[in-house]
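Hey, can you fold this one?
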Amino acid sequence: MLTTLKLNDRLVIRDKRYLINEMQSDLTTGDVDFSLISDFSEVKPITYIITPVGTGGVQSIAILFSNGASEVRVSKSANASNVTLSSVLFTSEGYLIIGVPPNGARTITITLDTEYLNGNKDINYIIINQQ
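Sure. Predicted structure:
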């Protein structure tokens, strides 16, 4: 794994996100020293997907937590009764797998409700447009 890491990559250590600022490796021992910076940048899981009418497919969407987020609840619009969601609740970062069957023209809205430890809430959307 260390061979794929580079500067400015994000690491999650004990539920906190960091950016790699510096890294030094000792080639004889394989030890790596990191200089990390706390990552407070906003992460918004918003995606717009277009699929042709009459086709379906599976979409894999990364669910990334903003700092202080405790959970993300996932729901779908009423016209999406035949759309499958791999999970409706995330308590840590992961991937939402959305199964979209072939259908006529429609716009599907997947709502991501984020709750924060301080009680704040945030809403983001994934829009799937079958046209």
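The two ends are 40 Å apart (CA to CA). Let me know if you want another pass with a different chain boundary.
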